[in-house]
Amino acid sequence: MATSNRGMAQRRPLPMAADLYGDIEPSPKAGWRDHVPGLLIVAAGTLSAGFISDHYGAPLTLMALLIGLALNFLSADPRLNPGLSFASRSLLRWGIVLVGARVTFSQIMALGPVALMAVLIIVMLVIGTGILAARRFGFSDAFGTLAGGAVAICGASAALALATTLGERRASQAQLTLVLVGISAMSAAAMVLYPILAHLLRLSDLKAGFMLGASIHDVAQTLGAGYSYSDGAGQIAAIVKLTRVALLAPLLAVVAMFLPKDGHRAKGPGIPWFVVGFFVLAGLNSLGVVPVLVATGAEKTAGALLAAAVTATAIRSPMAQLLEAGPKPLLVIASATLVALVLSLATALFLIG
Known about the structure:
Blueprint: H1 2-11, H2 32-56, H3 60-70, H4 81-98, H5 105-109, H6 113-136, H7 141-152, H8 156-166, H9 173-200, H10 205-215, H11 219-229, H12 231-246, H13 248-258, H14 273-287, H15 292-316, H16 319-324, H17 328-350
């Protein structure tokens, strides 16, 4: 499978999406006017996704992904490349940094040591499941890390960050798009189905909040599911989910150390600057030096930037390779999703409250 994938990469031009490090293509030498056409397309797609999300309650990430895929034919126009490249690289970097505005260390510690340790173990086991499932279906450990990490941490934003840390040689853009599709669809389904399961099991707010916060992929869907159950469950779900989001930075650091882009073990930690920025912003937010208005604006900006990056990623995705991949990559994501649900529910039933 790996030999076949390398052969395909040699015969075809590399796709160019979510290229955070520039390992797929160099930064285009273009003036600001050259960026305008592509950025206008990304802005139009992202605003459309935001309109649908606001008016119909659909997940923003899923809408951005679907609209971007609908505009995929535009990737053939070379005039759009500078703007699309900027959106899928620079906007993504800053979006990841601003995700730190969602996290405070005091929120995490208030959950208690048992729940915190349970979240950490669940995250580790879900990522391990992704790697084992990837091996079972003939994919690399890097793809298993990409799929399992996206399920375990924070959905599409974790998938984008992991893909750019792994690099094109470890996880292709076709695989990234499949993960984004699978994560968005399964997270949207979880937002609807998991609260129903919690009601059927008559879980308390504490137990339901933990289960929802520890198992649903994306932040927005987690909060939607939690507050649809009850206000108390929504607050618990938010803290648990933010705990998982906080693990994105150390996960990226570990991946950068042990699965570097050139295929050789790194001599140093190689922590990406956006990981450092994530930690710094979370620390400042924890100290209370960031005004509430600024923190709220940063969180909304992070969502907008990540949605724009998803739109650009979908527009630039290699659809032919995506269609050739078949259902196996989605089975890897489904396996990790099922394990996350089972472990989270078991923890809520027997260890929480």
